[in-house]
Amino acid sequence: xxxxxxxxxxxxxxxxxxxxxxxxxxxxxxxxxxxxxxxxxxxxxxxxxxxxxxxxxxxxxxxxxxxxxxxxxxxxxxxxxxxxxxxxxxxxxxxxxxxxxxxxxxxxxxxxxxxxxxxxxxxxxxxxxxxxxxxxxxxxxxxxxxxxxx
Length: 150
What we know:
alpha+beta, 8 helices, disordered N terminus
């Protein structure tokens, strides 16, 4: 689950407000924040975790995704997304999708999530009991491999 964008950006916005030179950036920062929020709100839920708004330049919205497969699926929804942004008052003439593989930190976070969902010791004991109860078969071999991997 992603953190609330308003909570994540509050320190940045406070910094921009406090410094005279950086205060000129505040309108652009708030505009980009609202554009990102509107874009994610209009997107199908499937893409909200894998997609982020990279920016908007001269009416071209750039979305970043982590895989080519997600990009292909996302491209099918772009006309509806563009129309929704136009309805909300954003001047978006086109939307580009960039594939940018996840960083090492993001991959580690995904691995940690998978490991957190690992089979508990009680579950492994149940699989061991199942293995002992089965006759020699492909199923028994598969259960043995599962136990060895965990």
